[in-house]
Amino acid sequence: MSSLALPTSRATWAFGVLAVTWFAAILFADGFDSVSNFRYLVQTASFLGIVAVGQTLVVMMSGIDLSVSGVVALSAVVCAKVASGTGGAATAVLVALLLSALVGAVNAAGVVWLRVPPMVMTLATGTILAGALLVYTDGSPSSAQVPLLDTLANGRLLGVPWAFVLWLVVTTVAFWLLHLSRTGRYAFALGAGEDAARASGVPVVSTAFTAYVSCAVLAGVAGLVLLGFTGTSSLTMGNPYQLLSIASVVLGGTSILGGRGHLLGTVGGALLLTLLTALLTSWNLSEGVRQVVLGVLIIGLLLVYARERRT
User: What residue intervals traverse the membrane (predicted)?
Assistant: First the structure.
């Protein structure tokens, strides 16, 4: 079941490794000891962190969402197209978030009512989204300057990036939902064993819809912030966040099989992955090598968790 005991959980390892990695980056790479670099890292980590928080909600109930990359692109592309047309910024943001929520509801419906495995259902949804966006944009996504999103992505509050503040707010709400609310206890119970949870009266439908819709909406929020950050949309802008959001959850100590973990560990995982990516980039390693390193790290952790679960 859910636990608030962060100090004794594996999540603390994520922050410990993060601290060691950051110290090593300061020693062996240039620029990591500056305030501006620190500010930029937490700003960019926020984009991944918001997606990863939603992914945590799904993974905790023994699910997974492979459509988040498509939802990130969907949100940004639709918002840019509507805002650059006659819809206006507020309408564009609202439409983007509603479509994101709809994708989450479709994922939940497929998993709960059609009994499609979460990996297959969400992968299919993501594939459909990629094709639909290609048709919708005819291969040429729009650009748009939305003042609200620009401020949210690039602005600061007392020197702190607004994107990081938004991530903290999202994390706080998700922390309450997962660790302090009844819905969170249901999610942990489903992750520990669906059959036992059903027999205990856990409302599977409402719990699944809450998790998948929340995950999709947060991916949509990340897409909007990315649109504000770059000022343009892309059909592939969400691709990096699919694997990295799952990696953040796993690195943060949450079992990929569900039922065990802590949301704050995901925060440490997202910061660690962003720092590692920046460190590998500063060493002029290619994108391919960076993906190999991150992939090997994720596979190793999955093997460790799978072995631990069997024992």
Answer: 12-32, 38-59, 89-113, 120-137, 157-178, 208-229, 241-258, 263-283, 289-306
How far is Cα 303 from Cα 299, in angstroms, rounded to an integer? 6
- Mean pLDDT score of the chain: 89
Query: 137, 77 in Cβ contact below 8 A?
Result: yes
The ranges of the chain with pLDDT < 50 are 1-3, 7-8
CB 118 within 8 A of CB 64: yes
User: Which of 2, 154, 129 is CA-nearest to residue 73?
Assistant: 129
237 within 8 A of 139, measured Cβ to Cβ: no
Handedness of CA 238, 240, 243, 248 (dihedral sign): negative
Contacts 24+ apart (CB under 8 A), 20-28: 21/272, 21/275, 21/276, 21/279, 22/275, 25/275, 25/278, 25/279, 25/282
DSSP state of 160: E
For residue range 148-194, what is the model confidence (pLDDT) as tens digits? 999 999 999 998 999 999 999 999 999 999 999 999 999 999 998 88
Residue spans of alpha helices (H) in 113-253: 118-137, 147-154, 162-175, 182-192, 194-199, 204-230, 239-251
First-to-last alpha carbon distance for the chain, in angstroms, is 18
**Dist. CA 311–CA 304, nearest whole Å:** 11
Return the structure tokens found at 252. Answer: 């943060």
| pTM of the entire predicted model | 0.91
Give 120-135 pLDDT, tens digit per residue: 999 999 999 999 999 9
